[in-house]
Amino acid sequence: MRTDTAPTISRHDYQPYPYRLPQVELVFDLDDVQSRVTSKLSFERVGAEGSPLVLNGEDLALESVVLNGRKLDAGDYQLNEETLTVFPTEAAITLEVVSLCKPAQNSTLMGLYVSGNNLFTQCEAEGFRRITWFPDRPDVMSRYRVTLRGDKARYPLLLSNGNLLESQDLPDGRHQAIWEDPHPKPSYLFALVAGDFSCREQAIQTASGRDALLQVYSDRGSEDKTEWALDSLARAVKWDETRFGLELDLDRFMVVAARDFNMGAMENKGLNVFNSSYVLADPDTATDASYHAIEGVIGHEYFHNWTGNRVTCRDWFQLSLKEGLTVFRDQEFSADMMAHGLTQGEAASARAVKRIDDVTALRTAQFPEDAGPMAHPIRPESYQEIGNFYTATVYEKGAEVIRMQHTLLGESGFRAGMDEYFRRHDGSAVTCDDFVNAMESVYIKQNPGKDLKVFRQWYSQAGTPRVKVELDYNAAAKSCRITLSQHCEPVGIEKLREPQSEKPPLLIPFALGLLDEHGNGISLKHEGKQLDTVVLELDTRRQTWEFGNIPSQPIPSLLRNFSAPVIVDYAYSTAQLALLAQHDSDPFARWEAGQELATRQLLKLVAAIQAKAPLDVDPEFIESWRAVLQDQQLTPAYRSRALTLPGEKILLEKTLPMDPAAVAGARRHLRETLGRELAPLWLEALHSADSGTSAPYSPNGLQAGLRSLKNLALAYLAAGNHPQATDLASRQYYEARNMTDRMGGLAALVNQQDASAGAQALQHFYEQWQHNPLVIDRWFTVQATAPSTRVSTVRTLMQHPAFTLRNPNRARSLIFQFCMNNLQGAHTSEGYEFWADQVIALNDMNPEIAARLARAFDNWSRYIPANREAIRQSYERIQQHPTLSRNVAEIVTKALKI
Ligand code: TRP
Ligand code: ZN
């Protein structure tokens, strides 16, 4: 732990490493208490003569250093907490370093660590330096040859990147395996796994006819839960071949599930390590959402094999180069899988559902981030701890920035740009600019005289831009003028800078349609084509477009399919929104209109709560909800999204000052009202959806949609205190034949009025699933997020024998879920104190996880005064912790600065 203030690393300070490192040989003597790593590094100097050779290291014990065959004494090198420096005089250098590390004591889950009885590594971003001294930066790429030695009974499997060259038994019950990865890679993609696993595998042939083996390793006893992950992997391989022409470049591709894991998964070359929650699934223990998440994350890590591994990042400021692009690719993969085998109309709806879910995630996590003290461009300008920048901005907004390029270039143009990107950069470590350059080379051909110069601003600007829309209809000329203007408020540390100048404009692809008063689409002439949807390229502060042949006053359908990560301002009337919510041919914009109606209703309720006025719900609003509920043309999945009220976090962003209790109260009141007023329809939806899911379980879009609608109906009935709610929820819970139904029943029971029915079900659930950690995580989560749960309940749950702070999934299931997703329980002075206690406890154990929890209330300065003051005090208490990690310190310092 560091207690000093950490230095700030700036993007502009990048310097190439003065040495090449073509070849790395590592020998591991594996042991959970203490492992010995012998490394032999062959450097070639490319920088100035006499350049010192600086290696990174952390929490290592140094045994010996040999430079070009000569053993160095302590006086021959410099050693401090973070670096080992030697001073070579030759241009070709062989450096042999022997060091020790302690996997069992490593609770950070970075570097080499123990999970269960097995050994795993996690090296991204800067974990390799916890394994051995090394130039631990992504622009140093090497071929690795790795020898793993360990006890054969304890670690029957010894895995690393690439190909297994040989394995053999050694004396004393030990054995060894030698692996070689033919692809040069940066250290963050190194991995080893040692332990006892079962394996499910599938032989495949790649597009060019090469044989390859796909393998999924997991704890013994869980082999019946890896079928979906392996199938998803095979689908991902195929998809990348067909949609991007990218083939698997390995003979063997391995996925290993780990119970203790800081994030979702890691794309180590040929040896992906996964959080077990993104691998293990069967109908009894995994929900539809888990199945979809597994498919998405399997896809994501696999797609990194090209976007991330074959072409990697020059430095960590370029993180979105691989993450934004790979999230875009996994989103498209999931959408294609969802739409597969459906009719055209159903496919469009399925894709819209995926888009709605992705945009909801963006608005829930990224919009708040972009308005808070941690606001940063998708390519950050500086950081103290890179681990803090694996953010919704870099990932999700980064994916939107890629998606906009896809929109601007079109599918085939984007594909041409990708081909060009790989033609230029395969095998190297590059920057975000290099990516845009490749895309621009195509854009310029498509649009002579134009370029992507203004578009690049998306990479250097933080904040969610607002686009204001003005519509001016000329009845005499039957023409319509659309004016778009853009503005982006200063955010985060920008607010502290004086003077504040307006940020430069962005290139915003703005998809737009027009509807007549009956809701029919009006065909628009744009750049010589007749279209239902036009994409306007807004690239100045304010621009006007004119459309002719518009028979009557039109209603605009704005930002179709969410064509840019912006907020739209347009003064719709309620009637216009209702019309769009019923008729817009763009399913995303149609959903959006309904959400806007709900938002307006909810904000009125918030105001009423604050004014202690009566809580009235507009009958028209209820009617708009009734219309969707009755619209059998819509798929169940789509209807379930359209009938879900905007989430509390999305709503909070629309209020200032933020009043969590009022927002939670407003949402609760509206759910209750809708539950009560539409009860017969919810009952009908529940029953018809129920009979639709009697087929053998499949996570496909149709079945998942029915279950999602059914669980929504049940939740509304429970919210409305329907007299049958408890019975219906009990029946669904106890008779469920899959985890989606079971969780829907359990959540409804826990959240309805009869506390004893909820308590009974929880007890039953625990007894039944106590041996399955991933299911017990769900058990903690329903309780953590129940509106009735208070700090005292959470503290009691922490005393439960099944609880541990050391396992990130478990900590997330209870602590994070409570702090971040229980507005009513967490936003109290007790809640803030509890949160600070947990940040401090985690800080000393796992700084990466602690720093994520530390962000829970980082938008504190926008809360109402009572909450604001209590949160600030808690941040100050955290700041005073004597052994604050660099990770948490950066978050707390930034939070308190605003
Ligand atoms: N690169 C990984 C991904 O996006 C995620 C990752 C980054 C990660 N750092 C990590 C995973 C640390 C675990 C621990 O897929
Ligand atoms: Zn990734």
From TrEMBL:
UniProt organism field: Eoetvoesiella caeni
The protein's name: Aminopeptidase N
Keyword check for Metal-binding: yes
Peptidase M1 membrane alanine aminopeptidase domain mapped to chain residues: 228-443
Names of the cofactor(s): Zn(2+)
Pfam families assigned to the protein according to its UniProt record, in alphabetical order: DUF3458, DUF3458_C, Peptidase_M1, Peptidase_M1_N
Keywords: Aminopeptidase, Hydrolase, Metal-binding, Metalloprotease, Protease, Zinc
Residue ranges occupied by any Peptidase M1 alanyl aminopeptidase C-terminal domain in the UniProt entry: 575-897
Transmembrane spans: none
Keyword Metal-binding attributed: yes
Family as reported in the entry's similarity comment: Belongs to the peptidase M1 family.
EC numbers: 3.4.11.2
Chain ranges of the Aminopeptidase N-like N-terminal domain: 32-189
Reactions catalysed: Release of an N-terminal amino acid, Xaa-|-Yaa- from a peptide, amide or arylamide. Xaa is preferably Ala, but may be most amino acids including Pro (slow action). When a terminal hydrophobic residue is followed by a prolyl residue, the two may be released as an intact Xaa-Pro dipeptide
InterPro entries with a match to the protein in the record: Aminopeptidase_N-like_N (IPR045357), Aminopeptidase_N-like_N_sf (IPR042097), PepN_Ig-like_sf (IPR038438), Peptidase_M1 (IPR001930), Peptidase_M1_dom (IPR014782), Peptidase_M1_pepN (IPR012779), Peptidase_M1_pepN_C (IPR024601), Peptidase_M1_pepN_C_sf (IPR037144)
Top EC class for this record: hydrolase
Span of domain Peptidase M1 alanyl aminopeptidase Ig-like fold: 463-570
GO biological process: proteolysis
NCBIfam families in the record: pepN_proteo
Superkingdom assignment: Bacteria
